[in-house]
Write a structure and sequence with these properties.
This protein is of the alpha+beta class. The protein folds into two domains: about 1-35; about 45-195, no CATH class. It contains two helices and twelve strands. It has helices at about 1-35, 55-65; strands at about 40, 45, 75-80, 90-95, 105-110, 115-125, 130-135, 140-145, 155, 180, 180-185, 195. The strands form three sheets. A five-stranded mixed β-sheet has the order 2-11-7-8-9, with no helix packed on it. The radius of gyration is 23 Å and the shape is globular. It comes from Cetobacterium somerae ATCC BAA-474. This is Lipoprotein. Keywords: Signal.
Length: about 200
């Protein structure tokens, strides 16, 4: 009787392990299928954030969000990147802190070379991709949407002739036939590299 019980228990364990490994294989194959449908270039470049603080960028952040230097805690990172092929780089700024962030992400600005605001964004998750495809001569921006109750998606932000859209969660999402090739920015681990603090 004891031998029969042991045999039944052993058989039950083998069936359980087999079903677990099948479900793992199934989820793995689904992940591979999803990755196949996302047509990202395998050789996408990475552009690191600047390593020198920039008072012009800091002043633009404070002005855009009506914040006070030394009072409102704000951290930022920025990248100089040419978005409209005029050989003059814009400043793409990622900013976060209690006044600028939530569960849906942080905030971002695009500034021209004179630190004038071109666009601002809410619910920003990093990293961000600057795609080589253009709309009205400005590169499309690819942003991930997640958190804050939003349905996870990958949004395409297109220039409308004056600015980019404010909220990525309200924009068209990446389709299976959209090919993404460009430059990935803000790839640093924010929890370890907080960028610059405005003081």
């Amino acid at each position: 009787m004891k031998l029969l019980n042991r045999f039944l228990i052993l058989g039950s364990l083998i069936l359980t392990l087999a079903s677990c490994s099948n479900s793992n294989l199934e989820s793995t194959s689904k992940a591979v299928e999803i990755n196949k449908n996302q047509n990202y270039s395998p050789s996408m470049a990475i552009k690191n954030s600047e390593t020198i603080r920039n008072v012009g960028v800091e002043n633009a952040i404070l002005k855009a969000y009506n914040l006070q230097r030394g009072i409102d805690p704000v951290y930022y990172s920025y990248v100089k990147i040419d978005l409209n092929s005029d050989s003059i780089p814009e400043y793409f700024v990622y900013a976060y802190g209690p006044m600028l962030s939530g569960s849906g992400g942080g905030s971002a600005l695009i500034l021209n070379s004179d630190y004038k605001e071109i666009s601002r964004f809410t619910l920003v998750q990093t990293p961000i991709i600057i795609n080589n495809h253009r709309t009205k001569n400005w590169k499309d921006i690819i942003m991930t949407v997640s958190g804050g109750g939003a349905t996870p998606a990958t949004a395409i932000m297109k220039f409308d002739g004056k600015t980019y859209p404010l909220n990525p969660s309200l924009q068209p999402t990446l389709g299976t036939h959209d090919y993404i090739d460009g430059v990935k920015i803000f790839t640093e681990n924010i929890s370890k590299n907080q960028g610059f603090k405005i003081e």
